[in-house]
Specification:
By secondary structure, the protein is of the alpha/beta class. It has 4 domains: 1-77, no CATH class; 139-300, Rossmann fold; 309-345 and 403-509, P-loop containing nucleotide triphosphate hydrolases (Rossmann fold); 533-619, Alpha-Beta Plaits (2-Layer Sandwich). Helix content is 29%, strand content 24%. The chain has a 7-stranded parallel β-sheet with strand order 11-12-10-13-14-7-15, sandwiched between helices. Strands 5-2-1-4-3-6 form a 6-stranded mixed β-sheet, with no helix packed on it. Strand 11, helix 6 and strand 12 form a beta-alpha-beta unit. Helix 8 (287-294) crosses helix 14 (512-526).
Length: 624
């Protein structure tokens, strides 16, 4: 661009009062180098220091009547914030009622000077190619066959096939999967189908230099397949043809810090802005996707497939005869067996050996459990309780409750002498195990893959998963069981022990759509998300009251109620706000403005970390 004299800069600051564009005069020396998206450092306020920022626009003159400060420090001429990604960041920030700087940390990785110099020396283009629009794009969902064959999991094969087809058409694909093991298997399969230069590893496990190198690769015009998790949705590919999200119900796709966004929502925003194709794929459908299907925003393009052999045993026994038979039959055929249990460790819970009361942590009063080293630990704060003493009777002994993965492994070892027993859990998570006769005992989400698939999958502790203190217990359980069964080979048998009622009947028939409909309708009756949206505000009571009083009368407010944190300097209060989807934009703008007014001059320090934190925390979508 030529003929400009003013740069409009987005300052990379978490302060809400700086969440807008500021105009700076561009010096003559920089006009030949600076581009839209360049990193800059600009003077701001009365201090002598400079603030980091990104050039969003280059214009001929400013509408500001006063004297403009000069932009004299160009960090890099590389356009790291493309117009498309800026619009996406702005939309996410506005939806979540946060500053755009909170989104920048997800969209733009840490700069590596050495990597950038090498990239520039290679002759890579500084300006990105404009996005090629492909119409309104198709928004769809598909149930994937839950099976593994000699080529690997069916879902991996289907996602890779779509990405390769897009690549051959000259279009890029973003593949978003929740777990690093899923990312690894996708990258491995892609490497068999296309050249390495066509694959962009956007995973978070890489070093900063490798992540920045992957980011710069996305800025080049060549089509690519981008594989990663949440941050991959901000990859600045310039010829994007399709976004694919696998298993959107996984909690790993929920951003744990500000902006607290879900990958599903970010993908929907980017699709609406660019018109690319968007596909959600899974073995089980989340209630959020069910809502979008029911209102017609997503099209269900699933095709019939052979449902897995699944037997439901309604019993109170932890391992019944049906499960034993399935295990023996698979082992006799030389196959591996997967046994999924609800919790890790020797025992899920611990009790006083004297009076039988539930053992509680001496630090936070949380429930104790027995880990794989046979030591009592707290489920809440993870502290060891080696010096346990019962507050009721003074007894220092503990007795174990229901068996965890470690004790279950030992019990299967005794029941099947000579058979190899492997344990995989959150502390020792295996990606793959060799083929052969063996029993793999795993906790949810830690199930390793085996070439060709398992001969049998046994789901234990079904009632334990369903009885968890979570409104999403049923939905999460269905997703966890479905993903485990998908590791089974054709002709294998899956057994769910102790699963009864409507859920057991429908799950045995693999009626995933009906289960999702039932889950969503139960939430609709209670006016719980995702039927409506629910925001939460946390902070001091007086500040919360000021903000809540300014909200429109048609917004439903629940609370505030006290939430006392351990070792907190002050008591946190929390309020929930239920609102319609159509009210989201207005409510986010109102909350952001009113919080800024109410907290002007306020400071707050975290009692746990000692760091400064925002006086009021806003979460526009509370997960319940």
């Amino acid at each position: 661009m030529t003929g400009f004299g003013v740069a409009r800069v987005a300052i990379d600051s978490p302060l809400p009062q700086l969440d807008r564009l500021f105009d700076y005069e561009v010096t003559e020396a920089l006009r030949g180098e600076i581009t839209v998206g360049s990193r800059v450092r600009v003077p701001f306020g009365r201090g002598a220091g400079l603030s980091d920022g990104f050039v969003v626009e280059l214009v001929k003159e400013s509408e500001f009547a006063g004297k403009l400060a000069r932009l004299e420090d160009l960090v890099s001429p590389v356009s790291v914030l493309t117009p498309e990604i800026y619009r996406l960041c702005r939309a996410v920030a506005d939806r979540q009622a946060v500053t755009i700087a909170d989104v920048f940390k997800l969209a733009i990785p840490t700069r590596s000077v050495a990597v950038e110099k090498k990239w520039l020396a290679s002759g890579a283009p500084l300006d990105t190619t404009p996005i090629r629009r492909i119409g309104t794009g198709q928004r769809s969902f598909v149930f994937v066959e839950p099976r593994t064959n000699e080529l690997g999991p069916i879902w991996v094969q289907q996602l890779v096939s779509r990405a390769i087809a897009n690549l051959e058409a000259g279009e890029s694909t973003i593949l978003v999967v929740p777990d690093y093991r899923d990312q690894a298997v996708l990258l491995s399969e892609l490497s068999k189908k296309t050249a390495a230069e066509n694959i962009v590893d956007y995973t978070s496990q890489q070093t900063n230099s490798l992540r920045y190198s992957a980011f710069l690769r996305c800025l080049t015009p060549a089509a690519a397949v981008v594989v990663g998790s949440r941050a991959a949705l901000y990859a600045p590919v310039t010829n994007l043809g399709e976004i694919v999200i696998w298993d959107d119900g996984d909690s790993n796709l929920q951003e744990p810090t500000s902006p607290y966004s879900n990958a599903r929502d970010v993908a929907l925003i980017r699709q609406s802005q660019t018109g690319v194709n968007l596909l959600f794929a899974a073995h089980a459908r989340s209630s959020e996707i069910e809502r979008l299907v029911e209102i017609g925003y997503l099209q269900d393009i699933s095709i019939p497939f052979a449902v897995p052999k699944l037997a439901i045993s309604e019993t109170n026994a932890r391992v019944d005869s049906l499960a034993w038979q399935a295990i023996r039959r698979a082992l006799e055929n030389g196959d591996s067996v997967l046994v999924q249990v609800a919790s890790r460790g020797q025992s899920v819970s611990a009790y006083c050996s004297g009076c039988g009361d539930r053992a509680k942590c001496v630090n936070c009063a949380g429930p104790l459990w027995i880990d794989s080293q046979n030591q009592p630990r707290c489920r809440w704060c993870n502290a060891h309780n080696l010096g346990f003493s019962c507050p009721a009777c003074g007894d220092r002994g503990l007795k174990q409750g229901r068996a965890g993965a470690t004790r279950t492994s030992a019990e299967f070892g005794k029941a099947f002498p000579g058979i190899k027993i492997i344990e995989s859990n959150g502390e020792n998570r295996l990606e793959r195990v060799p083929t052969g006769k063996q029993i793999v005992v795993s906790t949810p989400g830690a199930e390793p893959r085996v070439d060709g698939g398992y001969g049998a999958v046994v789901l234990l502790d079904c009632n334990e998963l369903l009885s968890r203190d979570n409104l999403r217990a049923s939905e999460d359980a269905i997703r966890i069981w479905s993903n485990a069964i998908a590791l089974m080979k054709s002709g294998g048998l899956a057994v769910a022990v102790g699963l009864q009622g409507f859920l057991g009947q429908k799950f045995a028939l693999w009626s995933q759509a009906e289960l999702a409909q039932h889950e969503y309708q139960s939430r609709a009756e209670l006016r719980f998300p995702p039927f409506i949206r629910m925001a939460s505000l946390s902070g001091e009571r007086d500040l919360l009251s000021k903000v809540l009083e300014s909200l429109p009368e048609d917004i439903e407010i629940l609370g505030p109620m006290p939430v006392t944190a351990k070792n907190a300097a002050v008591d946190d209060w929390r309020a929930l706000i239920r609102y319609e989807y159509s009210q989201g934009g207005t409510l986010a703008t109102t909350l952001k403005a009113q919080v800024l007014l109410a907290t002007a001059g306020s400071k707050r320090v975290s009692a746990k970390s000692g760091r400064a934190q925002r006086p009021i925390q806003i979460k526009m979508d509370t997960v319940i």
